[in-house]
């Protein structure tokens, strides 16, 4: 792996008056790696990406793409960058081919090389047969693929993908994740933001966890998991909210964090939810997640505390340590909050 | 040239936007078409059908005078004159009975019966038998016109007779017919001068908008006035509506995506401005051509038309850029299109005849883009001198340039 830094972020700030969207972030991605930015909504991921892609000027610090400062050499930095925005940013009344040709021109491509590259990208995103159809007639997944294809037209050394799998079907999601791996295998550096820990775990060489404008953890997946030590995550569903019980559990020896998982006041106890159509999670207000040192030893104490509080535990799920547990460990809050 | 790529992209999208096409071209043409047919029908009804006039001239000239020196001959010559030949067709008939038969058979619409000895009696002390006009009772305009013509001629002769009686003491009777003939000649010349004469005559009949050009159809002239209003309104509407695409791009994320490409924001906005200018230009060309081909509008000389069109494009684009720069969302832009443009159109005189507007409003309209465009086109279609058109066009274009610059600065600040 090359050691040149494709992305370098140094003490970057972006504030709006008193609101700190990004508060002094430092980060780096080596050339040819996939760096995942993981964090809940509002963590500052999109703001950081907006600064890197030239949409927003930083209010402090600097960042560079392939050595080009986004503040002092913005055009050169943008030329090295392909951006896949979170929302579909295409012209619906143009065909896929017309969109790709237009965007290719905006990246400076012309003539035969442009059309040859458009053919390649259409092949890559699997839309050669539908290239003459207007984008407005495409399914959501097809639009997503064109959305990604636009960012690849000029062979950028760095691609930023801002939550590209939000709101799409599992098949399209799988195709997108595969294409990220292909791009990375071809040598592209990918900055991939997501709030799906599974995607970050699957794709990324390094993961930066962001919360409230700060990078609170950085490392490989295994390095981050090791932060938990021997702790295990346990999800417990209750028959009712039992607010007092959470404090009682926090007082139990061997319990380090307790929080409601995906607290949703409208949800019914034990309701099975589907977050953004991708990963099944317990989103009921009565599901509590906890980090415990030794589940065999601590779980009986949790049951005892529940009985003492008059609560009934309806289900228990002991999970392998994952990034969600890391986030809970670091912030005291569930990642999906 | 990325700026042209951006403009071409917008033009391509515009051609696929049915609402834009409808409002830019179809709507003004539809409105004009709806106006055209009633006007056309009105014109057809207003043109009298050719009237067939049967003349029974039994009059004889006074002794010693030539046959055409009789009053009957003068009446006949007048009805068969070149000036009226396009709508009067004279048939000479032998007798009043033949005339009545021809009327019955609808071969003629009106018959003029000039009795024998009419000249002698008329010039004598008391005319014994008058000229009689028989008419088809189903016809109105043609017989009335013939009657008025004959009456007019005879009134003139009566006036001459009064003059003759007054002067008879000084004129030998042998020269009487010569005096009458000279009078009739003078009177006919006077009539021609009143109706068709040059500007030295007492009455000048001219075609509005095309002095001396008798080939221009009145409907075309009226349509040109109406189309001016349509062109002014819809050109400015198109300028504003097209600029909404910038807000749409902002909302749809394509504008932000453009900003992530190695393309400067000045170029991106410039491409949009070029596109709106070309769109309004194309719209103007289409409407002018359609006006000429569909409605027979004579827009005048090419140079003033080109100058007016260029000026219109600048002011329509400029107003569109400024108006849309003042709003943030497409929803707000809808208010601009619906309300502000209508209000400006009213103030600019789009919905009011200029002469009926109070002086204050007429003055205010000079500062409203719609008012300026209307005034400019009115100058063009009325055949104003090129210099005058250029003067008006420069003022209009300057107004447009100011609006354009203000809007561009606002957009530049917003997206910098």
What are its keywords?
heterodimer, A: 337 residues, alpha/beta, Rossmann fold, Alpha-Beta Plaits, B: 416 residues, mainly alpha, abc type-2 transporter like fold, 2 domains, 4-stranded mixed β-sheet, 4 strands, 5% strand
In short:
With 337 residues, chain A is of the alpha/beta class. Chain A has 11 helices and 16 strands. The chains are: A alpha/beta (337), B mainly alpha (416).
CATH architecture of the largest domain in chain A: 3-Layer(aba) Sandwich
Provide the β-strand percentage band of chain A.
Answer: 25-35%
CATH fold label of the largest domain in chain A:
Rossmann fold
Could you tell me how far the N terminus lies from the C terminus of chain A, measured between alpha carbons in angstroms?
Answer: 36 Å
- Helix % of chain B is 55-70%
Average predicted confidence as pLDDT of chain B: 82
The share of residues in extended strands of chain B comes to 5-15%
Structure description:
- The complex is a heterodimer of chains A (337) and B (416).
- Chain A is an alpha/beta fold and 337 residues long.
- Chain A has three domains: 5-80 and 156-225, P-loop containing nucleotide triphosphate hydrolases (Rossmann fold, 3-Layer(aba) Sandwich), CATH 3.40.50.300; 95-148, no CATH class; 229-331, YebC, transcriptional regulation domain (Alpha-Beta Plaits).
- Chain A is built from eleven helices and 16 strands.
- In chain A, the strands form four sheets. Chain A has a six-stranded mixed β-sheet with strand order 6-7-8-3-9-10, sandwiched between helices. Chain A has a four-stranded antiparallel β-sheet with strand order 2-1-4-5. Chain A has a four-stranded antiparallel β-sheet with strand order 12-15-11-16, sandwiched between helices.
- In chain A, α3 crosses α4 and α5 (140-152) packs parallel to α6 (170-185).
- The longest helix of chain A is centred in the middle third of the chain and has 16 residues, at 170-185.
- Chain B has 416 residues and is mainly α.
- Chain B has two domains: 2-41 and 215-414, no CATH class; 50-196, abc type-2 transporter like fold.
- Chain B has helices spanning 2-15, 18-46, 71-79, 96-104, 118-123, 141-167, 176-196, 218-252, 254-259, 265-295, 302-325, 330-347, 359-365, 369-381, 386-414; strands at 51-57, 88-92, 110-114, 132-135.
- Chain B has a four-stranded mixed β-sheet with strand order 2-1-3-4, with helices on both faces.
- In chain B, α3 links the parallel β1 (51-57) and β2.
- In chain B, α1 packs across α10 (265-295) and α2 runs antiparallel to α8.
- Chain B is elongated, with a radius of gyration of 33 Å.
- At the A-B interface, α2 and α3 of A face α1 and α9 of B.
């Amino acid at each position: 792996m090359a050691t040149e830094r494709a992305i370098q972020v140094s003490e970057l700030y972006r504030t709006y008056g008193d609101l700190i969207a990004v508060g002094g972030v430092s980060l780096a991605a080596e050339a040819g790696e996939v760096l995942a930015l993981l964090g809940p909504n509002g963590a500052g991921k999109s703001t950081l990406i907006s600064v890197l892609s030239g949409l927003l000027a930083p209010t402090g610090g600097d960042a560079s793409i392939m050595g080009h400062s986004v503040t002092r050499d913005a055009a050169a930095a943008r030329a090295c960058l392909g951006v896949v925005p979170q929302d579909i940013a295409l012209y619906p009344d143009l065909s896929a081919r017309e969109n790709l040709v237009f965007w290719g021109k905006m990246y400076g491509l012309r003539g035969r090389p442009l059309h040859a590259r458009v053919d390649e990208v259409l092949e890559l995103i699997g839309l050669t047969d539908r290239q003459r159809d207007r984008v407005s007639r495409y399914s959501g997944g097809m639009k997503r693929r064109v959305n990604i294809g636009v960012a690849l037209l000029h062979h950028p050394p760095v691609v930023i993908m801002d939550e590209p799998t939000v709101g799409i079907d599992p098949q399209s999601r799988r195709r997108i994740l595969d294409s990220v791996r292909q791009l990375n295998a071809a040598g592209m550096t990918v900055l991939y933001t997501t709030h799906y820990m599974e995607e970050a775990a699957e794709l990324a060489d390094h993961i930066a966890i962001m919360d409230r404008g700060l990078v609170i953890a950085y490392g490989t997946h295994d390095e981050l998991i090791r932060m938990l030590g021997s702790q295990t995550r346990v999800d417990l569903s209750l028959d009712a909210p039992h607010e007092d019980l959470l404090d009682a559990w926090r007082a139990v020896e061997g319990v380090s964090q307790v929080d409601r998982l995906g607290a949703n006041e409208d949800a019914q106890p034990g309701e099975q939810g589907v977050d953004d159509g991708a990963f099944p999670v317990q989103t009921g207000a009565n599901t509590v997640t906890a980090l415990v040192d030794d589940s065999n030893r601590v779980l009986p104490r949790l049951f005892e505390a529940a009985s003492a509080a008059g609560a009934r535990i309806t289900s228990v799920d002991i999970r392998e340590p994952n990034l969600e547990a890391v986030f809970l460990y670091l912030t005291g809050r569930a990642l999906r909050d | 040239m990325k700026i042209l790529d951006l403009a071409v992209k917008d033009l391509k999208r515009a051609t696929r936007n049915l609402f834009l096409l409808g409002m830019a071209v179809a709507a003004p043409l539809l409105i004009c078409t709806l106006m055209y047919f009633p006007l056309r029908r009105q014109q057809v009804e207003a043109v009298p059908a050719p009237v067939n006039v049967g003349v029974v001239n039994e009059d004889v000239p006074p002794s010693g005078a030539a046959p055409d020196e009789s009053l009957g001959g003068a009446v006949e010559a007048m009805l068969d004159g070149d000036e009226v030949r396009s709508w009067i067709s004279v048939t000479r008939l032998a007798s009043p009975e033949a005339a009545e038969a021809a009327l019955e058979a609808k071969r003629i619409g009106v018959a003029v019966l000039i009795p024998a000895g009419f000249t002698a009696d008329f010039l004598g002390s008391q005319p014994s038998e008058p000229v009689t006009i028989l008419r088809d009772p189903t016809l109105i305009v043609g017989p009335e016109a013939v009657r008025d013509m004959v009456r007019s001629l005879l009134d003139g002769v009566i006036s001459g007779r009064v003059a003759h009686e007054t002067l008879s003491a000084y004129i030998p009777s042998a020269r009487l017919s010569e005096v009458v003939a000279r009078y009739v000649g003078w009177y006919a010349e006077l009539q021609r001068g009143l109706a068709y004469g040059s500007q030295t005559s007492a009455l000048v009949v001219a075609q509005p908008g095309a002095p001396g050009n008798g080939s221009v159809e009145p409907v075309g002239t009226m349509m040109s006035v109406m189309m001016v209003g349509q062109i002014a309104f819809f050109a400015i509407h198109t300028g504003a509506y097209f600029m909404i695409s910038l807000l749409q791009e902002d909302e749809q994320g394509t504008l932000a995506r453009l900003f992530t490409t190695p393309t400067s924001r000045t170029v991106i906005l410039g491409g949009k401005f070029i596109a709106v200018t070309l769109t309004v230009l194309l719209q103007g060309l289409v409407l002018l051509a359609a006006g000429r081909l569909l409605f027979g509008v004579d827009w005048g000389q090419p140079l003033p038309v080109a100058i007016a069109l260029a000026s219109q494009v600048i002011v329509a684009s400029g107003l569109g850029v400024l108006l849309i720069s003042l709003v943030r969302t497409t929803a707000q832009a809808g208010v601009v299109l619906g309300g502000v443009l209508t209000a400006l159109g009213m103030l600019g005189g789009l919905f009011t005849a200029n002469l009926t507007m109070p002086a204050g409003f007429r003055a205010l309209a000079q500062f409203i883009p719609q008012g300026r465009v209307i005034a400019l086109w009115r100058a063009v279609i009325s055949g104003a001198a090129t210099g005058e058109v250029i003067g008006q066009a420069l003022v209009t274009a300057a107004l447009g340039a100011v609006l354009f610059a203000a809007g561009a600065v606002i957009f530049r600040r917003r997206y910098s």
